[in-house]
Amino acid sequence: MRTDGPRGAAAREARERGTAARLELARPGRYFGTAVAAGHLGEADYAATLDREFNSATPENEMKWDATEPSRGTFTFSAADRVVDHARAQGMDVRGHTLVWHSQLPSWVGALGAADLRAAMNDHIDQVMGRYKGQIHSWDVVNEAFQDGGSGARRSSPFQDKLGDGYIEEAFRTARAADPAAKLCYNDYNTDGVNAKSTAVYAMVKDFKARGVPIDCVGFQGHFNSNSPVPADLRANLQRFADLGVDVQITELDIEGSGTAQADAYARVVDACLAVDRCTGITVWGVTDKYSWRSGGTPLLFDGNYDAKPAYDAVLAALGGDGGGGEPGEGTATCTATYTRTADWNSGYNGQITVTAGSEPISSWAATVTFAAPQQVQATWNATPSWSGNVMTARPSWNGTLAAGASTGFGFTVSKNGSDAAPVVGGCTAS
Ligand code: G3I
Predict the structure, then answer these.
(1) Per the count of CB atoms within 10 A, which of 129, 163, 378, 398 is most buried?
(2) Contact by Cβ (8 Å): 127, 75
(3) 279-294 burial, b if ≥16 CB within 10 A, otherwise e?
(4) Is 60 noted as a catalytic residue in this protein?
(5) Helix crossing, 259-274 with 310-319: angle to 10°?
(6) What does R_g of the chain's alpha carbons equal in angstroms?
(7) Helix (H) or strand (E) holding 31
(8) 366 φ/ψ angles, rounded to the nearest 5 degrees
């Protein structure tokens, strides 16, 4: 995500090593992420596409109030943990979504009186942010607090109706204390262009910055279709928020349609973000059309077979990349390595590492994989391992030569010995 500083350097390094995600490769320093549903991570093509293409993950539903605190004071994090663990094992950033929202809110929250509701809101923020403290890049602290249309008014919700306008800043103050390292975002839809709703959000952010209320970023969801096309003033709108001193992010991008029209619309969004220095990343709202919340509109970059659509090519071109690793024509041998769990049982699992050559052919590769103690690797195939503690360096058995963009794989069987943690791919080097 960040446009400068450590992540920029890390991304450049990853790019040189060939371990950055494909959509990130084109533009190190800005993340390109997707919404992730825990329930699909076991599908090999889903996980492979996620791991290969994206460097940021937003749990699509797993961190929402109904998922994390279905009854007061009882917190359940198993589904959210699955997304966070998977993402972090792949070196991805994680966006937190979302803490205070009128939707997917269990009915017990709406039944509370004002004092109890305030306590419950702050406790919810404390507990959920506390669980993932230090692991979340940006949090959508408050989501969709404004009404649609021209009124510029706040949306009716238990929080708004019982606590008044002040609940939003209270939520941000609580969030800052709960995880001081996380960027705190306000997130909304139909705020992508300059309009009455976005102007009401703008006034709130301006007021927060003037009064020192902790806010670091504004999320623009970016749900587009023929009734709500990509606005011509998207860039100008992002820029006016950035000029207030906050980062801006496209947080839930999907664009209904197909073919060239859809591809052009995606490119316009990417161009708008790239034109704004403080636009630090883009998240698309799902990996594949088939699992989109509006799958009938085929709004994403990969179709139901995980084939890249023209929209994907347009995004990659707009980002300025070739999609294969390394700069085009650079003459540098690079590779990427991505991990997938291919089988799982009580005491063990099988893993597969896919090694893909970058934009140049390669004649050999080496991939490092770190296993969590006390796991033990029982067998490997299609690679020759060497060991340093729990770090395996795998080199080709017979499969070192790859054409540009071509892939090979190797596998292993691991005894869990009580630890279900995913191995971490450290890097891939090629010659
Ligand atoms: O998991 C259950 C399943 O067990 C059950 O059989 C099925 C029956 O309806 O429901 C499944 O849960 C659904 C869940 O998605 C997982 O697929 C919920 O009904 C459904 O309401 C929920 O929809 C989510 C929606 O938020 C709810 O508001 C979408 O996945 C999610 O993409 C969408 O995301 C929102 C953002 O959080 C905020 N901005 C708008 C965006 C799009 O609506």
Answers:
(1) 129
(2) yes
(3) bbbbbbbbbbbbbbee
(4) no
(5) 20
(6) 22
(7) strand 31-36
(8) -145, 130
**Annotated active-site residue in 144, 169, 256, 360:** 144
Catalytic residue among 24, 62, 252, 256: 252
pLDDT band at 6 (very low <50, low <70, confident <90, very high): very low
Whether ligand 1 lies within 6 angstroms of the CB of 221 is answered as yes
**How far is CA 93 from its chain centroid?**
6
Sequence-distant (6+) residues with CB within 8 A of 411 are 342, 350, 351, 352, 353, 380, 381, 382
Enumerate long-range contacts of 394-399, CB under 8 Å, 24 or more apart: 394/353, 394/366, 394/367, 394/368, 394/369, 395/364, 395/365, 395/366, 396/364, 396/365
Q: Which residue reads 């007061």 in tokens?
A: 72
Phi, psi for residue 114 in degrees, rounded to 5: -55, -50
List phi, psi (to 5°) of 228.
Answer: -140, 70
Cis peptide preceding 393, ω within 30 of 0: no
**C-beta 61 within 6 A of ligand 1:** yes
Residue type, 194: V
Mean pLDDT for 424-429 is 78
Distances (CA, A) of 201 to 121, 243, 281, 357, 409: 21, 14, 20, 45, 49
Residues 6+ apart with CB under 8 A from 225: 255, 256, 257, 297, 299
Measured CA to CA in angstroms, residue 101 lies from 117, 121, 154, 167 at distances of 13, 10, 12, 11
Is pLDDT above 50 for 165? yes
For 270-286, what is the mean pLDDT? 95
Q: Helix, strand, coil: what percent of the chain each, to 5? A: 35, 30, 40
Indicate the SS3 state at residue 374: coil
Active site residue 69: no
Amino acid, single-letter form, for residue 397: S
Q: List the structure tokens of 73.
A: 């004071």
The string of pLDDT tens digits covering residues 368-410 is 888 888 999 999 999 988 887 788 889 988 889 998 888 999 9
Find all residues with CB under 8 Å of 115, minimum gap 6, and list them: none
Ligand 1 mean position to 338 CA, how many Å?
Answer: 28
Please say whether the dihedral angle defined by the alpha carbons of residues 175, 179, 185 and 187, taken in this order, is positive or negative.
negative
| Token pair for 189 | 């839809």
